[in-house]
Structure formats: structure tokens, C-alpha cells
Amino acid sequence: MKLTWLSHSAFRLEIGKAVVMIDPFLTGNPAFKGDVEAVSAGATHIVLTHGHDDHIGDAAAIAKRTGAQVVSNYEICVFLCSQGAQNINPGNTGGTVDCGGFSVSFTQAQHSSGVTRDGQSIYLGNPNGVVIKAPGEKTLYHMGDTDIFGDMALIDEIHAPKIGLAPIGDRFTMGPQTAALAVKRFFHFDTVVPIHFGTFPLLTGKAADFAAALEGGATQVRIPEFGVPMTF
Fold first, then answer.
1. Which residues pair with residue 15 across a beta bridge?
2. Taking a C-beta distance cutoff of 8 angstroms, is the pair 153, 80 a contact?
3. What distance in Å separates the CA atoms of residue 229 and residue 4, rounded to the nearest whole number?
4. What does residue 180 show for φ and ψ, rounded to 5 degrees?
5. 59-66 and 74-82 helices cross at what angle (nearest 10)?
């Protein structure tokens, strides 16, 4: 498994024969310094945690250009169909969908989900985290945007993820200390990667503070670098 951080909560995940774009907020992202077509080249799937613009991002454009399958909740899939995406694989909280070579399970997340177009709010279903599993690979849990919640313990019990992607930016999600508490109290990750930080001035949470709060524990913290692949 190869995981490349594209800033904010966006990743390119290469797992088996699949190339998965997760929450590809690239265009308009001040922290993204790459080329959208280059980082999404060969995409086979697009996995979206929820319906905010800083997570849906370039999903429709990538789907139209590559034919990648959109994997998200029903409302987001239908919305992106209206934007030109043709290949969808919808699910919802508690469900698991087969993506051919890997699966995506939708978990609870404490957040909101929707976009505003022409002054009108469009509801895009409940927010989710996503658990990605493939034979012979470590299980990956992208928490999406969320606060800490007690049922994280059930996510660990049911799915046993070994790689965690945890939002730490504060204001719209957990801050570093709360995210570290979630990791220590509820999970048995081998590795955790902080996300959703440093993109905008409003996101004040620091990766170094998250790492310090987990120092000495059993979980390795890997602070991601833009465009640098991490192999697991």
C-alpha cells in the first residue's frame, strides 16, 4: 500500500491494482502545489467522506476525465452524477461496498455535510469516516471530519484498523489533544497520520502538538509531507 498526502484531507492511495483518490480537494486549495491531472493520473476510484467543498473538491472533474468510480453516500453520488460523473457505487453509514480488489465501509462521524450553490444549501447526507480493506494489506481508517465520540471503540472492535488518518486542525474538527486522546483511548493503530491541518489560517491545530501528545505510546505518528509517498 502506498499513500501520498496531497494536503488537507486529500490522498492518493495505491492499493493492489487500484488508484484511489480520497477527498480530492485540489483546485482552490492553497496548500496544494501540484498538478491535478498528474496526481490523479490513472485513478480508478474516488472515495469521499462527506459533502463539503473542501472534500468533494475535484471529484466530478476527475471522474469525468478518468472514468473513476465514485464511492460515497447516496446523496453525494447522485449529486456528482448531476455534475457529470457516470460511475457511482453508493453506500451509507454501517454499510460496506465492494470496489473490486478492496472494500469501503462507512462509519459514523460527528460533523455536517452539504454544499451551497446559488445561495441555496444542498443537503448531501450524513458525514462519514471510511474504512478501506484489501486482502494482504493493513486496514486503513480515514476518519473524515469529526469530533471524538465513544463509538470509535466499536469501529476499532469491528474493523481493527492499523493505519489511522486523524483530523487535528481544530475549529471544524478535533484539535491535536482531543485527536490524540481518541487514538490512545479507542484504537490500536500501528501508525496514525494527522490530517486537515495547515490549509487555512482558521485551522490552528499543529501536527507537532499531536505528535507530542502521543509521544511514548505504542502508535507511531507519521507527519505527512506533501507529495511524498508513505509505504505500509
1. 18
2. no
3. 4
4. -65, -40
5. 70
Burial class, 97, CB count within 10 angstroms (exposed 0-12 / middle 13-18 / buried 19+): middle
C-alpha–C-alpha distance, residues 232 and 224, integer Å = 13
- DSSP E strand boundaries for 29-138: 45-47, 69-73, 88-91, 96-98, 103-108, 114-117, 120-123, 128-133
- pLDDT (tens, 9 = 90+) of the chain, 232 residues, equals 999 999 999 999 999 999 999 999 999 999 999 999 999 999 999 999 999 999 999 999 999 999 999 999 999 999 999 999 999 999 999 999 999 999 999 999 999 999 999 999 999 999 999 999 999 999 999 999 999 999 999 999 999 999 999 999 999 999 999 999 999 999 999 999 999 999 999 999 999 999 999 999 999 999 999 999 999 9
DSSP letter at 145? S
> CA-to-CA distance for 95 and 118, rounded, in angstroms?
33
In the three-class reduction of DSSP (H, G, I as helix; E, B as strand; rest coil), residue 132 is classed as strand
Q: Which domains does the chain have, with CATH numbers?
A: 2-224 (3.60.15.10)
Cell of 88: 457511482
pTM above threshold 0.90: yes
Say if strands 11-15 and 2-5 run parallel, antiparallel, or are unpaired.
antiparallel
For residues 39 and 162, what is the distance between their CA atoms, to the nearest angstrom? Answer: 25
